[in-house]
Amino acid sequence: MAYHVTLVTNNSATSIAITNPAYAADSRLVGPNSPYVPERPILVNAMPGNPTYRAAISTAINMYTYSDNYCFWDNTNSAVNGIGEKGSTIAFNMPAGNLQITINADGTLTFAQAGATAKAG
Predict the structure, then answer these.
(1) Nearest-CA neighbor of 104 among 87, 121, 79?
(2) What average pLDDT is seen over the chain?
């Protein structure tokens, strides 16, 4: 089973950008203080392990916020892993399924599935 992003809520004061190297139609700017519900849920691309930011950027979904540029992926082992260009990490350990991502006021990401949350940092 795979992870899909079904809602992105931008609670920051600046726009954010979403890009997906595997499917250009997933790319989107999301304005400040607004939600985005993709017409087609965004598939979180699979990539085993924990590559560097430079290695991940060509495969992983990217979210560019004013505080960092984040890459995240399905690690193929029941988790979403990620890394920010500035070195922050994402580790969201939940069974695959639909994800909701919140961009917090400080530009960091929070992942949620079935009522659980995990903040990147």
Answers:
(1) 121
(2) 90
Q: Are 70 and 106 in contact (CB under 8 A)?
A: no
Q: d(Cα 59, Cα 103) in Å, to the nearest integer?
A: 21
Instruction: Print burial letters for 82-102: b (CB count within 10 Å at least 16), e (below 16).
Output: bbbeeebebebebebeebbbb
What's the pLDDT tens digit per position in 95-118? 888 999 999 999 999 999 744 444
d(CA 61, CA 22): 8
Helix, strand, coil % over all residues of the chain, rounded to 5: 5, 45, 50
Of how many residues is the chain composed? 121
Q: Hey, what long-range contacts does 29-35 have (CB within 8 A, 24 or more apart)?
A: 30/103, 34/9, 34/10, 35/7, 35/8, 35/9, 35/10
Q: What is the mean pLDDT of residues 10-32?
A: 95
Would you tell me how many other CB atoms lie within 10 Å of the CB of residue 26? Answer: 18
**How much of the chain exceeds pLDDT 70, in percent?**
93
